[in-house]
Predict the structure.
Amino acid sequence: MSKEKGWLTFLLLFIICCERKEKKEKEHSMKGFLSGVAAIGKFLNVIAGISLTFLMLLTITDVILRMFKKPVVGTYELVAFAGAVVIGFSMPLTSHVRQHIFVDFFILKFSQKVRNIFNMVTRCLVIALFLLVGWNMFKYATDLRRSGEVSLTLQMPFYPVAYGVGVCFFVLCLVFVCDIIKIVGGEFDV
């Protein structure tokens, strides 16, 4: 009888150790996913920063050259392209670090469980919205590519910017998936 208890105890300890190991591996892979999405957001934000710097330098250059009656050709188009890149490419990191406008005074009156449910539901709705927006952005970019539509002055194609912004919407969906993972894991702070 004691020999059977020893084996059962050993088996139970082995199962517990395996479960802990699987849990640690799962947590490690989740942290890797979270940090990977954050790294992608940071990379896209660097592109947005470069685009913003280009936009500012172009505007300053155009203003100075206009005084000498030599404006930069296509400034309006380049500013429009750069502005789309700045806005689209900065959204994932902005949402990841929650630097956007967030009105939470209403939900702070509820318990943590209700706030978590509210945050998960809103994240799911936003994921659905941005999946649709990203998908339609890709369809729009494909239509622009097929039609060969280009800007008037510089003859630059529109579709690369549209594809880039569409990718950013899909990355934004991953950011909200990360938020859901943090909420489930109890790591999400409002």
Remarks:
- The chain has a mean pLDDT of 88.
- The first helix runs from residue 2 to 67.
- The two ends are 55 Å apart (CA to CA).
